[in-house]
Amino acid sequence: MSSETPKTQVQQRLQHDTSLLSLSCSPLLTKLYANRGITADSELDNSTKTLIHANQLKGIATACELLYQAYLDSKKIIIVGDFDADGATSTALSVLSLRALGFQHVDYLIPNRFDYGYGLSPEIVDLAAQQGAQLLMTVDNGISSISGVAHAKDLGIEVLVTDHHLPGEETPVADAIVNPNQIGCQFPSKNLAGVGVAFYVMLALRSLMQEKGCFTDFAAPNLANFLDIVALGTVADVVKLDANNRTLVHQGLARIRAGFCRPGISALIQVAKRNQQQLVATDLGFSLGPRLNAAGRLDEMSHGVELLLCDDYLRANTLASELDALNLSRREIEQSMQQEAMLSLQKLSIDQNNLPLALCLFEADWHQGVIGLVASRIKEKYYRPTFAFARANGGEIKGSARSIPGVHIRDMLDLVDKTLPGVILKFGGHAMAAGLSLLEKDFDLFNDTLNAILKAQVDEDLLNNVILSDGQLSSEQFDLSIAQELRDAGPWGQGFPAPIFDGVFALKQQRIVGQKHLKMVLQQGDKLIDAIAFNIDPEAWPDLSVKEVFCVYSLDVNEFRGQRTVQLLVQLLQPK
């Protein structure tokens, strides 16, 4: 939460005329939905019947035939996943689904980011070959694994690539590729997470196996039972929650709230001290996802996969507690690295009024597993595309990038690569996040070239942080039933943002809690409202001279010792 950022502007979200809309919800929700482009109740239908059909994914028929033949031939299938939450959920979903469909020889590999790096590398192929792999199925990776796929084919191993990352100019020569972002794919939603792609492949495979009469000895499994995993991976990967993804997340959340979820997910909810019956999408993104991600950042993501595969509640609780401890260590490392990053910026005399178009930071002793989080935090503070690099092996440094709306970071890396052929050793990613590696000696050259390209390509108006507000609430609307209505109206997330409001309040009380959060009592009219601002500027708050504040906030439900009350979660706090 920023107490003051000179570049931050608060603008009213474009207000749509709701007089002609007949949505089956309250006037406030009608307004909020209209502001997000919803014009009919059908667009709010999150039943499974609204999901786009799998047959619109290019390559999915070939992929299913490949898997079906592996089933008939009892081939050894190894799932190769990524070391983040999307990769872990994709891997677990695929293993569980294939086993439920009757496959007898299914295992998985998650590359250790420190030893092997990202994706289906030749080294990972060799490891899979040693384990007897006859078919490799990548999840949440593979579209850039040119050499790895070629090596697998040389060894006589079949390869099915399932991915959602943007392809480069060259794609691997795999036996089948399923990726909504590959050229020629007509699938309307390009925003599936890796776990969403894997789920669609499993749905289509089940249909094919039903056609082939495979389910005579046992009933075809209901793969919707795994939507809790799909929801977790989709939200944790921060993909856009378009209508299709909202349905996947809504259905997964409904199962979790009803208690029909994996023991590992229940255990994560418990260690995160969340209410399972009241769980919302933000809990998946900010409480469960980071704990699952901690395994891949600091240790082995196989711990996270094992948690999701686990059928025993006692063991699940043990694994979740271990991940919770890892997440605590991750936060401590991240905080230390963040402080070092801020000191580096100070040494460069960089402040809010002297910002390059992109921030590139490198410290030799930074932890590779946490650089993405550091890049994200610095990006949030300075509102610039940010790259954080850590030293790897053989003179290489590995970087993680986080961007801002309007600056497509993978496309920017592609332009750098074309400008400096061979300097970027490898890269990949999305519009908002990317990873790359280069030689340490080329760091300054990369930094200078990236900033020059951004200067030529990017409208500097995009570098002003604009918060879009849904307007003001009346004092009567600071009500528990309305706060609950907003929680239930989601799932909110990337591309379908949760409602935020703004207003001026009398500041009646202010105190620090948890060392860095500002707890307040605000007043509007005759109503007193609890509010909290997380991660405030300790030099600015509390300020007992301030009697009135401007806040940008969300309306939330606070649960404490069985009591549920309205609370404002303050995103921007400024004295009036």
Compact description:
The protein has 16 helices and 17 strands.
Provide the fold topology.
Layout: E1 9-12, H1 27-35, H2 60-72, E2 77-80, H3 85-100, E3 106-109, H4 122-130, E4 135-139, H5 146-154, E5 158-162, E6 176-178, H6 194-211, H7 227-236, H8 243-257, H9 263-271, H10 281-298, H11 302-309, H12 313-347, E7 359-363, H13 371-382, E8 386-391, E9 396-402, H14 409-419, E10 424-429, E11 433-439, H15 443-457, E12 466-469, H16 480-488, E13 501-513, E14 517-524, E15 527-533, E16 548-560, E17 563-575
Parallel strand pairs: 1-12, 2-3, 2-4, 4-5, 5-6, 7-8, 15-17
Antiparallel strand pairs: 8-9, 9-11, 10-11, 13-14, 13-16, 14-15, 16-17
Can you offer a commentary on this structure?
The strands form four sheets. The chain has a five-stranded parallel β-sheet, sandwiched between helices. Strands 7-8-9-11-10 form a five-stranded mixed β-sheet, sandwiched between helices. It has helices at residues 27-35, 60-72, 85-100, 122-130, 146-154, 194-211, 227-236, 243-257, 263-271, 281-298, 302-309, 313-347, 371-382, 409-419, 443-457, 480-488; strands spanning 9-12, 77-80, 106-109, 135-139, 158-162, 176-178, 359-363, 386-391, 396-402, 424-429, 433-439, 466-469, 501-513, 517-524, 527-533, 548-560, 563-575. Helix 9 crosses helix 12 (313-347) and helix 10 crosses helix 12 (313-347). With 576 residues, it is of the alpha/beta class. It is globular and about 75 Å long. Helices cover 38% and strands 20% of the residues. It has 16 helices and 17 strands. A hairpin with a 3-residue loop joins strand 13 and strand 14 (517-524).
